[in-house]
Amino acid sequence: MKKNFDPFPPSVQGQPGYRTRNNLSGLDPVDTAAESAHMQGVFLRLLFTLRLRTRNPVYLTAMFVIGVGMLVLSVPFITVIFSPPATESLGRFIRAAVIILIILGIPLSVGIFLLLNFALSLTAIKKANLDVSEQDEEV
């Protein structure tokens, strides 16, 4: 037997609008946390797949400042890693360097991906402006 097509599928916890379904207040802490976690997951997926785009100058500035900040804060640790000490404590130094690189992997990758998405957003804005100016010239 065929199911009838439902244009409004049932809500799933964490989806936007689930908290306020059926005239609920939306103040349930579990639903609020689930929706927040869903939106964070969407943000991270868009960030790491290089599809995070915005035209808002405030968001563009925040992406740039946070991305550069994460890279700048990592530079002192990276310079320490690439300047090894004397040979007597080289084994301990290598272990410490690996631990520092593992810990810095997350902020470094987030900073790099924020800057990449920032650059891609700027190129998308520039391309959209060029397309509009070409359409204006044709008219």
Structure in words:
Helix 2 runs antiparallel to helix 3 (90-138). With 139 residues, this protein is mainly alpha-helical. The longest helix is centred in the C-terminal third of the chain and has 49 residues, at 90-138. The chain folds into 2 domains: 1-49, no CATH class; 52-138. It contains 3 helices and no strands. Helix content is 68%, strand content 0%.
Task: Detail the topology: elements first, then pairings.
Elements: H1 29-48, H2 57-81, H3 90-138
Helix pairs in contact: 2-3
Approximate strand percentage: under 5%
Report low-confidence residues grouped into runs of 5 or more.
none
Distance between the first and last residues' Cα = 55 Å
Taking all Cα atoms into account, the compactness measure Rg is: 23 Å
Write down the overall mean pLDDT.
85
Domain module count = 2
Rough outline: flat
Structural class estimated from helices and strands: mainly alpha
Taking the sheet with the most strands, its summary is:
none
H and E order = HHH
Question: What is shown here, in short?
Answer:
The chain is an all-alpha fold and 139 residues long. It contains 3 helices and no strands.
